[in-house]
Amino acid sequence: MVPTTYYIALSAVLFGLGVLAFIFKRNIITIFMSIELMLNAVNLAFVAFSQRTGKLDGQIFVLFVIIVAAAEAAVGLGIIILIARNRQSLNVERVDLLKL
Amino acid sequence: MLEYLWIIPLLPMLGSATNGLLGAKWPNKFINSVALGATGLSFACALEAVREFFASGQTFFRKEYFDWIIVPDLVHGGSLFRAGFDLQMDQLTVIMLMVVTGVGFLIHIYSTGYMAHEGGYYRFFSYLNLFMFFMLLLILGANYVLLFVGWEGVGLASYLLVGFYFLRKSAADAGKKAFIVNRIGDFGFMLGMFLLFRTFHTLDFATLFSAAAAKPADAMGHLGYFTVACLLLFMGACGKSAQLPLYVWLPDAMEGPTPVSALIHAATMVTAGVYVVARSHVLFMHAPTAMVVVAIVGCATAFFAATIGLVQTDIKKVLAYSTVSQLGYMFLGCGVGAFSAGIFHLMTHAFFKALLFLAAGSVIHAMGGEQDMRKMGGLSKKIKWTFATMLTATLAIAGFPPLAAFFSKDSILLSAFNSPDGGHILYALGLFTALLTSFYMFRLVYLTFAGKERYDEHHVHVHESPWSMLGPLVILAILSIIGGWLAAPALWGGTDYFTAFLNPVFGSAEAANALDEAAAHSLELTLAVVAVISAALGLLVAFLLYGKQNDKPANIAKSAGPVYTLLLNKYYVDEIYAALVVNPLMWISRNVLWKVVDVEIVDGAVNGLAHGAREIGDASRHTQSGNTRSYAVWVVIGAILVIAVIFWVHLQPTVEGMVR
Fold it and tell me: Most buried among B192, B285, B333, B624, using CB within 10 Å?
């Protein structure tokens, strides 16, 4: 059996990659994907702990996260389409109207 | 009625509230009926209460109505401090009550005539009733705290009424001066109360005095707590009763309407200081040093004010200095241990000085507002009633028998003469002051009523006052004549009924001063004759100088030169105070309190906060770049910080444990 530590390490690596991509990528779709990556890294950790402790809590949480991620993807993609129409670009640095 | 003493002060308060809140648009008749009704009913209630008091045969009545301030003792039960709404009545209260309600009522009647054509009619009567309320609280209160409420309240009423014509700057300033100078005295009064509370753990008269009586008295010249407390209380009395060195507000207070001068600044409020000293006689008898101070200050003030009164030309200013002087007599009486004599003079003074002021008001009314005696003259034929009553009052204050002040001043001077502590000097100064009193009062009468008219008859239409004003004058004139007769039998060896009347209150205090009967009697007669001679001398000098039109006064003034100037400028006391106190205070206020404390510190703190907030905002607004990725960085940094804190707090012990 694969030790839980490996899963957690993989989860941390995935999460870190997600964070780095989130910070350094300019394409809004890529950023969106990196968010999904982070969510799934967390899901992996949940499942690993669930399997380790033998409780179902972690797996239920994962279901919730997947549902929320689906809803978020629907809303987020809608926003992205609007941005793409208005700006003719997917560069996140062009979206800066909140600047003081 | 005795059980319901609280009604006596309550009525004027209701009158004040009614007139003050609702009276603005009312016709004068309504305002009159409320104000006069309140004081008249209060007078009637006071009469009934006094009747019951005597009918019941008790010498002391006290009733607790409700707790006002109470500090319960949680450890031992009972209370650590209690100041209740307790009213009390004894012979001293009876006299004060009768003087305040009786004379107050008369002056209310007079005011309806005097103020008839003035603006702010409702305001005037509202203030006047307010004054009556506080004054009654002052004399009925059964502890120092309640007395102090009345004490401050009459000060407030005095301030409001002195500054009644507040559009005139001098009146507004005089009101402020009266209030501020009184504050100095009140400071002492409060310290005195604190000391008494600290020593005796109560401020209730009955408990406090019985506790004090049991303690040994301070030795002469020793500053024990009795002496210090009495001196502090006397400081308050000096402010309220216009004694040296705090008398300066009273002459200025003449800016108020004349009935106010009569009621507050002659008959009642200014005598509150004498009342406090008399009320605290148990304490003062235990403080011989304080007694000497009271006597000396009283005597010095009497003389000092009388000399200023000699040369004043404003009719009300003469009377104001005369009031200061007569108050000095009262303190002299109290200071030599003759409390009943002091209170006796307080009573007769209330009659004749109220009369003098009201008659002066009648003169001013007749002259259409003129107060300068140099512009009067020859009024005796035109305003006969005013002249007759004014002459009665003058004879009374000068001390001619058998009028009121003859007896009261005589008993004070007799007590001063008998006093062991330098009594002869006090007596001599008091006697000389009596001469001066007689002189300046007859000077006033001659200048005002005798001689040729010195006013422009085409402009001034001299007219006698209405009966609403003359009525009180006549009643007060009668009182000024008969007011002293209670003490008269003492002259032919009988009982001094006034002293006997106050005996239950002052008995123990005055027994020490009682002389051998026969010796006392012959001495009293001699002193009375001397007093009358000095009064007659004053009259004679006034007649020689002012009886006929001549230039003698001017010549004397010229030859007296610097002395005359000194007197005319009131010893430059106002100027000295301005230089020593007022101007330094103004300088500090302007250069330190305003320019440093207010501008730099208070404003500086507020402005500094605002400035700091703007600086911080300016610095931190750059974090809001609008760049999504920089926000993401902030989120990550925040998350890392939170995780770091969690690890630090929760896991550090575990980690350390693992390391060890």
Answer: B333
Q: DSSP states of B522-558 as a string? A: HHHHHHHHHHHHHHHHHHHHHHHHHSSS-SHHHHHHH
B607 to chain A nearest CA, in Å? 25
> Is the pLDDT higher at A97 or at B159?
B159
Which residues of B are less than 8 Å from A30 in CB distance?
Answer: none
Please report the DSSP string for B314-342 in residue order. Answer: BHHHHHHHHHHHHHHHHHHHHHTT-HHHH
Asked if B628 is an interface residue toward chain A (Cβ–Cβ < 8 A), one would say yes
Q: What is the pLDDT of residue B550?
A: 67
* B627 in reach of chain A (CB within 8 A): yes
**A83 lies in which domain range?**
4-90
CATH number at residue A76: 1.10.287.3510
**Has residue A99 been placed in a domain?**
no
Indicate the pTM of the whole model: 0.79
Are the beta carbons of A98 and B633 separated by less than 8 Å? Answer: no
The full 3-state SS of A40-91, as one line of letters, equals HHHHHHHHHHHHHHCCCHHHHHHHHHHHHHHHHHHHHHHHHHHHHHHHCCCE
Q: Locate tokens 């890392």: which residue? A: B640
Domain-located, residue A28: yes
Of B621, B626, B636, the CB nearest to A96: B626
Instruction: Quick: pLDDT tens for B163-202.
Output: 998 888 999 999 999 999 999 999 999 999 999 999 888 8
Across the interface, do A95 and B636 touch by the CB < 8 Å criterion?
no
In a domain, A44, yes or no: yes
Residue partners of B238: CB distance under 8 A and separation at least 6: B185, B188, B244, B245, B246, B247, B273, B297
Cβ distance of B633 and A23 shorter than 8 Å: yes
Q: Which of B625, B632, B636 sits opposite A99 (nearest CB)?
A: B625
Whether residue A95 lies inside any domain: the answer is no
Q: B641: which 2 tokens? A: 């910080």
What is the DSSP track for B235-302?
A: HHHHHHTT-TTSTTHHHHGGGS-HHHHHIIIIISGGGHHHHHHHHTHHHHHT-HHHHHHHHHHHHHHH
Q: Do B626 and A98 touch (CB under 8 A)?
A: yes
B624 interface with A at CB cutoff 8 Å: yes
H/E run at residue B503: helix B497-511
| Residue B72 preceded by cis peptide, ω within 30 | no
Long-range contacts of B30-34, Cβ-Cβ distance < 8 Å, separation of 24 or more: B31/B121, B31/B122, B31/B125, B32/B112, B32/B125, B34/B125
Averaged pLDDT, A77-92: 88
Number of domains making up chain A: 1
Q: Which of B620, B628, B634 to probe the A interface (max A CBs under 10 A)?
A: B628
* Tens digits of residue pLDDT in A3-58: 888 999 999 999 999 999 988 888 889 989 999 999 999 999 999 999 888 889 89
Query: Between the CA atoms of B164, B165, B166 and B169, what dihedral angle is there, to the nearest 10 degrees?
Result: -130
